[in-house]
Amino acid sequence: MRFTSLVVELIRARPRLVVLLVVLLQAALWLILPVLLYRSPPGELATVLAFGREYQVGTYFGPPLAFWLADIAFRAVGNYMFGVYLLAQLCAIATFWAFYQLARAIVGGQQAVLAVLLSMTVVAFSSPGVEFGPLVLARPLWALLLLHSWQIIGQNRRSAWFAWSIEAGLLLLTTSAAIGLLLLVAGFAVATVRGRRTLMSLDPLYALLVIVVLALPWLIWIVRADVLTMPPWPAIDDLSARALHWGGLLGGLVLAMSGIVLLVVLNSGWFARNAEEAPIIYRPPVDPLARQFVYCFAIGPALLGSLVAGLFNLERVSGGAGVVLLMSGLAVIVATGDLVYLRRQRLLRSVWAVAVAAPAFVAIAATLFLPWTGSNEVQTSLPAKAIAHFFGDSFERRTNQKLRAVTGDPQLASFIAMDAGRPHLLLDTTPERTPWLSVAKFNETGGVVVWRASDTLGTPPPELLQRFPGLVPEVPRVFEWLVNGRQPLLRVGWAIVRPKAQ
Fold first, then answer.
1. 8 A C-beta contact, residue 65 and residue 169
2. What would be an example GO MF term here (predicted)?
3. Mean of pLDDT over the chain
4. What is the pLDDT of residues 169-192, one digit of tens each?
């Protein structure tokens, strides 16, 4: 007797409801967990806020849109990180909903649910999605761009051109990898008959005009800042090392998709008994152009992004893993066939739930138990709010002025830049990255210099004394971690540079 679970029946009868439920549950998980567990922002989120506070048209870190939105979200809830975490999860919801709409247009609503469920197991959409920034904001924009690209090329919907142009312009204002992604879309259009037919109209010219208008401030900044130079090409002796780096990046992408691989293997019919009794998720035949579209944007961004990162020795895949792996779930569904058999339903549900929830358990375990295993530092356990409040309040008490600038250790300084007064951040080792403030200007307006103290006297590092001669250290301030464990307390050395007027 064939057994069909309630989940399968829901997928068949209410696919949109299933997508909304699972996407909202994952978003709620990664909204609640950092609010309860993180005492400091993960990754470079504090730096994103420090740069967003300046509202620069462009910076060393790339286009400005993500930085502006992060600062707006931070201020909207009274200078609390909840606003930024909420913004990150809204991006996740928009990403998967646009991805579902695209998958539904290609394989139908029922199999589109399976594509979304598979893509949700990609590691990039879990804990890294909390670190709002260009890589996170690019995901919904890329998903929407692909959706409207298919509507334009595959369905000949001229009304989608305007939305496509807006999304392309915003993507250019979000990530430096946008140019490569847009060229990939244009290349697919040129390489296909229906794509070339679509381009033989005035709509692409109007779209190009909208894109230029949206990205004009960023383009002007690029020209004025003279950053149109290509990164240096690797020497011949470095090619082998860069090739290994490229292989490592590709391996990382495969590892991020391990949940999809495991689910596909468990659902295979190699070792299944009574395979004919497995419930079936049916779809109408897939358009050959749609199959090419899915494979192109499932494989192309990953290969191109990893190749660029490997060639120029970048730390991560160009565009981010969340962008280049977005279509991976849909590619698996398209390759499976018109009939998808769901074998071992209970096992598949359990493995999928573990794959989605495992990063959350890893984050909890790292926060609560890693400090007891040694002196390893958990970044999100630093008391960012207490650090910011102490140094902001100390400067105001000593000088009777609001703290206007902070420098020194980049991580600690970026935490202090989140204080209620939102002081300016100066990266004193690389001042060209913070053009709104220089060392000379810092010495004139005054501020706080912080560093990690290695002794009880709080002796400043020699390089700080060279940049700030006459620095008089204060008694180091000690802060507790969220979980102290076996690691020593955080000892912060600091000094006040008084304003010249005093």
1. no
2. pentosyltransferase activity
3. 89
4. 999 999 989 999 999 999 999 999
Cα–Cα distance between 425 and 71 in angstroms, integer? 14
Q: Which residue has the tokens 């540079």?
A: 497
CA terminus-to-terminus distance, the chain: 87
Convert the pLDDT of each residue in 97-121 to its tens digit: 999 999 999 999 899 999 999 999 9
3-state helix, strand, coil in the chain (%, to 5): 60, 5, 30
Q: Taking the CB of residue 130, how many other CB atoms lie within 10 A of it?
A: 24
Asked if residue 407 lies in contact with residue 428, where contact means CB atoms within 8 angstroms, the answer is yes
**Domains in the chain: boundaries:** 6-38+81-137+231-366, 381-497
Helix (H) / strand (E) element for 354: namely helix 345-368
DSSP 238: G
Return d(Cα 438, Cα 362) in angstroms, integer: 41
Pick the closest to residue 87 from 137, 144, 53 (CA basis).
137
- The torsion angles phi and psi of 420, rounded to 5 degrees, stand at -60, -35
Q: Can you say whether the dihedral through the CA atoms of 129, 106, 318, 251 is positive or negative?
A: positive
Q: Round to whole Å and give the CA distance between 440 and 423.
A: 16
Tell me, what amino acid is at 348? L
Cα distance between residue 403 and residue 274, in whole Å: 71
| Contact status, residue 123 vs residue 359, Cβ threshold 8 Å | yes
**Strand 405-408 to strand 447-452: parallel, antiparallel, or no bridges (unpaired)?**
parallel
Distance CA 59, CA 218 (A): 10
Q: Which two tokens stand for residue 342?
A: 């769901």
Mean pLDDT of 213-239: 75
Q: How far lies 142's CA from each of 91, 113, 137, 277, in Å?
A: 11, 19, 9, 39
